[in-house]
Write the structure tokens for this entry.
Amino acid sequence: MGKYLDPRADLTFKKVFGEHKNLVISLLNALLPLKDDERVESIEYWPAEKIPKRTQVEKDSIVDVCCKDNKNREFIVEMQMTWTESFKKRVLLNASKAYVAQSEAGGVYDTLQPVYALNFVNENFMKDVDDYYHYYHLVHDKYTDKVIDGLHLVFVELKKFKPQTFTEKKMQVLWLRFLTEITDKTLEAPAELLENPEVSEALKILEIGAYSPGEMRAYDKFWDYISRQRTIANDIRREVEKAKAEIAVANAKAEEANAEAEEAKAKLKQKDIDTARRMKAKGYAIADIAEITGLTVEEIEGL
């Protein structure tokens, strides 16, 4: 094992960003699409009773930090180790709940403040695009400068992040390098990360020596669960692919059988037509030809 623990785990992510306000402020300002005059200056963490309830699977695979700043804007920061398409709806639901929770009976709507959901995803879920940063908000479909400022959803696909192709904010690069390059096999952190005061502080929090035996057991349990979930997901994917392949083979055989049946039917039809022509040439009555060949009167008359 190296010098640090992986920052994406439940224990470490919450220690870094759930117990150190200056670090989560830095993360929010680096990753969220905020203008200079919209930057987060101070925050308070949500009380435990306000945190959205999780299913057992979500508790074991999703890490979250929730807070509110001095402008009463709400922030939900999540690390999602596994991914399904339903997670996007869950993110939207939780952000909507946070927005609605600001409203009091008889209150005025202009006091409602935006909710930002920042989601780090440890899997590639948007496979048809190269971008790793995805920002969703309410925008007019024609006049894109017209925005309803309410819900802001950001998804970051960590595995797509490559610092050498990135030209945006420096702190965004440093925090994403922190989340993607530091693991429990890291013996020495990159100099660029150590040179930055905030990231260096976060690295100090990750040092293995700072954790008790009980915390290390919890850390190992988290990764064991993630490994089991990935194994199950891979098994399911393989079974689905196998089933799709079997269905494709069955469909191909069915199409082949249908084609053969149509060919046989066409041959029988042609045989009946040939018979009808011969009978017609020998002067048989149309009604008799129709009875013997199964052709219609109109078909026989047209021969």
